[in-house]
Amino acid sequence: MVEGEFSTQTNHQAPLEPEATIAYLENEGDTSKVVVIGRSILIHTHAAIVAKAVGASVRYQEPFCGGQFGIKMSVVTEAVAAAAAMHFKRPVRYIPTMAESLVMTNKRHAYNSIRIKLGADATGHLTGFTCDFEVDKGAYALLGAEIMERSIKMMSNAYNIPNVRSLGRTVYTNNAPGGAARGAGPPQTIYALELAMDMLAEKCGIDPLEFRKMNSLKPGQTKATGMVVDEWPFPELCDTIKEAYDKARKDAAEFNKSNSGPVKRGVGIGACAFGIAWPADVSEIAVDVDPDDGITIYAAVADPGEGNDSMLSQIAAHVLDMPLDKIRLYTRDTDKTWENGPSAGSRQTWMSGGALVKACEELKAAMDEAGSKTYEGLKKAGKKTNYHVVNKMRGENVLDPKTGQGLTFLSECHNI
Fold this sequence. Notes:
With about 425 residues, this protein is α/β, with parallel strands linked by helices. It contains 10 helices and 16 strands. The two termini are about 25 Å apart.
């Protein structure tokens, strides 16, 4: 058994663009609304938050504004700009300085203490893991219990650990509020587990890569929350990097042997299994066939540098065997779209891309039955020209409060 106490610091997500926002009034009377053009990765939720804050109907648009690393999960300048536009009855632009941005925005949660114990049997197979951790929440509850829950749901990382106990606490402090940042929770506890894996591998006399591979989950086994995994390609990932890993270790050993100076080389390794679609997760997309025989895709899919517009276009072109110049996108706007959840990691590719595949397959089947790919051909055959699909994951997104058991993320990406 090995044990230790670790901590992680506060980080600022540091996108190149600060919290730039434009707001203006649109229409009059019953149809009046405030149009907010701001950085956001879940525009319908943010439109609802701003609408409640300013007491007006809000249309939210997300321009192309580059990376965000989680910081655009929270409303910052958007409500202020919307309120100012309503007060002055004029368009408003609010761009904070970088110094202001550093003060007003949320940060990655510091995990001030992560106390762990990790044990293995005589053969080197993991037997038990405990992890008690304290989260510096900062001043406000931008993301509160979600951070702890995400850490707990991914607590066992890529490994088969038969016995797991964890206790997380989130603590309000006078520091900057914690919010989403590059994984939002699990990276901190996984970091501590990976350190323990290296410590235990050394104590067992087993190579760190081999130790991880031999303790990998296998299909049919369960994560820490009792969720059974159907697929788990982590051992294959270990095999893929083994040649490069062995060469790196050999090169480092030769360098250290021939170099009597203070500079030495080492080879580090760390692994992460990260979830990207939670139980009951939902995405909605509609595909319209246009009178000129092109299609328009309607989806509230933000694109903070992930290439989601390109992803949607390529999926539609592939499924429908249609040239890219026939595909149009109506994205990043709350008008004519539905809540689609955050653009985070590969989630939109899995969720909204999955919804788009289903919608395009329905359209393709209708085209095949009509014997035509044209708008007029579909209408003449009595087929729809609009295909609206809801892609919903199975289960409920809650863990049993007494046992901590339940479903976690239904799609995982593995990194090493």
